[in-house]
Specification:
The complex is a heterodimer of chains A (about 300) and B (about 240). With about 300 residues, chain A is mainly α. Chain A has a domain at about 40-235. Chain A is built from 14 helices and 2 strands. Chain A has a two-stranded antiparallel ribbon. Chain B has about 240 residues and is α/β, with parallel strands linked by helices. In chain B, about 40% of the residues lie in helices and about 25% in strands. Classes of the chains: A mainly alpha (about 300), B alpha/beta (about 240).
């Protein structure tokens, strides 16, 4: 147990001290991107991996977080950090409302409802201005944010937030909240019969996931300095979260971390060299993982074997 | 006072009347058996009582208070739970974690207190040896006991047991019946659905018979076994001639 803690401390220290090495800006961007995906995939996993309710609309909260931060900073001159936090809270509140109803649905119906939510959010941002003849979301023109920070700043913001999310999931995995979510995934009726208020836990997890994704969206907006609805509400973001969690191991703490890391790197390294065949290869790899490693890459190293 | 009162309970699935105005009461400390042919509505009755299904008519009173509009976790905390015929453990969790969950959520005990109580329950049911195994890796007998362990973990005084003894060999059946007798001694109110007449006759103070969603008999086990309608609907000639 002790050496495990030491390894984690060493890895954390290495990541924190990385900027002192004086690397090129490119590496900060790569690592920041990886942290962003680690955070997104881990946050998504908290609801979908732990409870088994597969959320196909997670990008909705990412987009709302992006726009909340962008609008607060450009229209109301709110500083970055509070904007990001408000965006997260807003996403959490919206998810409480949405989750109240969608979390009653099971299986594919939940997936369909969440997908519809994300697409509706995108359409609202796209068409709101034209419909009501106002200038708020700027439709498909998108919003440009002030450029103020360097790469090291974002490196640390992403590292802190995503590191916090992974730590949070790690703690939840061992506490009462985590047991409730896992019980719901395994047998929802049995969970109710054991005294678990399943709806409350499901909706809480969903709102927490949404808030975290919203915060990451806010950072993303300030980082990229330009956002547009088709980009930040793109369904590809949701799909990425899903395949990263799936690849690494759904419902595990470090599966999404591994998945986000490996697939982000693969996208960066292989994706740029083999532009036309990369996605096909990715599809093949995913098929192999799903068929032979149903518990993801993490299943290779985890000792706890599950027979079904 | 009656522990449980079922009043004109009705449940339909489309055109099928799964339960048709069922009435009965359960007394303090009683072990009640429910028998009847397949599809008679026994499991439906249980699911309505514990809140998994909403009844279409009638009411369920627990110690005088209606529980028909409560969600299962509220009914569980009030004092009624069930073990399922098809065992649904929390598969990826260990046996011990399976027992911890009702203690932490149903009784809202602290983690440490739950650990202690879980050990007690597993000791009582003789499943402590397998406590660190995932619940997928244990025998049928132990899975049935795990169902019971989870029900006991909730602290509920009324336990509905849906064929908890089915599929066991004669020795395991004997052990299972001994456990149920001990629960009776501890003051639990038990409602047992079972096809094994040996268990029903050996354990129950009273038996009611369901057929096509209706109650057709209610009384002491031996009387019920001699009832003409029960023989035609369920038992057949062989048992009553004994």
């Amino acid at each position: 147990m002790k050496w495990k803690v030491l390894i984690w401390l060493a890895v954390s220290l290495g990541l924190v001290l990385f900027p002192l090495a004086g690397a090129e800006g490119y590496y900060y961007r790569i690592l920041s991107m990886i942290y962003l995906w680690v955070g997104l995939a881990s946050a998504w996993n908290l609801t979908s991996g732990f409870t088994g309710y597969i959320d196909f609309g997670a990008v909705g909260y990412f987009g709302i977080g992006n726009y909340a931060t962008a609008l607060l900073m450009t229209r109301a001159a709110v500083p970055f950090m509070p904007s990001m936090a408000i965006g997260g809270v807003l996403c959490g509140l919206i998810a409480l409302l949405i989750g109240r109803y969608t979390m009653k649905l099971r299986g594919a119906y939940f997936g369909i409802a969440t997908l519809a939510f994300a697409e509706a959010a995108k359409q609202i941002v796209l068409e709101f201005d034209r419909t009501f003849r106002v200038r708020l979301f700027e439709g498909s023109h998108g919003i440009t944010l002030p450029i103020a920070q360097d790469e090291v700043f974002f490196y640390y913001v992403f590292l802190t937030v995503s590191g916090g999310i992974v730590l949070g999931v790690f703690l939840i995995n061992r506490n009462k909240f985590g047991y409730a979510l896992k019980a719901i995934k395994e047998a929802e009726d049995s969970a109710e019969l054991a005294g678990i208020n399943t709806r409350r836990y499901k909706v809480s997890a969903y709102a927490l996931t949404a808030a975290l994704i919203g915060v990451l969206g806010g950072i993303n907006a300030y980082w990229l300095t330009y956002i547009s609805p088709l980009d930040v509400f793109s369904v590809m973001h949701t799909i990425n979260m899903i395949i990263m969690a799936l690849f690494g191991g759904m419902g595990t703490v470090f599966g999404p971390v591994v998945g986000a890391f490996v697939l982000s790197m693969a996208n960066e390294v292989i994706g740029s060299k083999l532009l036309y065949t990369y996605l096909m290869m990715l599809g093949m790899i995913l098929l192999v993982v799903v068929i032979f490693l149903p518990r993801g890459m993490i299943g290779l190293i985890s000792r706890k074997r599950i027979r079904r | 006072m009656n522990v449980l009162a079922i009043q004109d309970l009705a449940k339909t699935f489309g055109a099928l009347k799964a339960l048709h105005d069922v009435n009965f009461i359960v007394h303090e400390g009683e072990t009640l058996g429910i028998i009847g042919p397949n599809g008679a509505g026994k499991t439906t009755l249980f699911n309505v009582i514990v809140g998994l299904y909403r009844p279409d008519g009638g009411d369920v009173l627990y110690r005088g208070k209606s529980i028909r509009n409560l969600l299962p976790h509220r009914i569980c905390r009030a004092g009624i739970t069930k073990t399922s015929q098809i065992v649904h453990p929390f598969l990826t969790l260990t046996v011990k974690e399976n027992v911890l969950i009702p203690l932490m959520f149903g009784q809202k005990l602290s983690r440490r207190e739950s650990e202690r109580k879980a050990d007690e329950i597993m000791e009582f049911l003789n499943i402590r040896e397998v406590k660190d195994l995932p619940s997928t890796a244990i025998s049928l007998q132990n899975r049935r006991r795990l169902e019971l362990a989870r029900a006991l973990g909730t602290g509920a005084e009324v336990i509905l047991m849906d064929e908890n003894l089915a599929g066991l060999n004669p020795k395991e059946l004997e052990e299972g019946m001994a456990i149920i007798r001990e629960l009776k001694k501890r003051g639990k109110v038990l409602i047992i659905v079972e096809h094994i007449m040996q268990a029903i006759l050996g354990l129950c103070d009273r038996v009611i018979v369901l057929s096509y969603g209706e109650k057709i008999a209610d009384g002491p086990p031996l009387d019920v076994c001699r009832d003409e309608r029960v023989i035609t609907a369920y038992l057949g000639q062989k048992i009553c001639s004994r």
